[in-house]
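Ticket #4471: structure export looks truncated?
Reporter: QA, pipeline team
Priority: medium

Steps to reproduce: submit the single chain below to the structure queue and open the exported record.
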Amino acid sequence: MNDFNAQVVDEFRANNGKVGGPFEGAPMVLLHHVGRKSGTPRVTPLMYMADDADPDVVYLFASMAGAPTNPAWYHNLLAAGTAEIERGDERYAVDVDEVTGADRDRIYAEQASRYPGFAEYEQKTRGVRTIPVLALRRSTGDGGRS
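Actual output as written to the record:
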């Protein structure tokens, strides 16, 4: 974990999920995932958007600030199908699904309207890649079959 992320993680944990700096006021989670190649446990601070209709679902955006490639955490989550998140002062398991098509476009547009940086990221990646959206649903312990 780089120094910036480590500082964000420490601040998140010290303040029940709230951080300052460039993320002040933004909804944040700490994503716990395992490197699909290395097997190394990782913690990545990320902005999220809560599902308005389902409190057990949050959306993550694999924007990597508009870089031409998807972030490693995205590949790790797709490979594993599960992860854990810290949200506020709670940590819990989640099942991971990629959101595609019109649903992906609607969710991403809503995030971009709330946080214009995401619209900028989309402009940077236009013609290169579509920024993935992942739905993380609180795990029921049955492999997501409920």
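Status: closed, not a bug. The export was complete when the record was re-opened. Leaving a note from the reviewer for reference: The beta strands are 28-34, 41-50, 57-61, 82-87, 90-99, 133-138.
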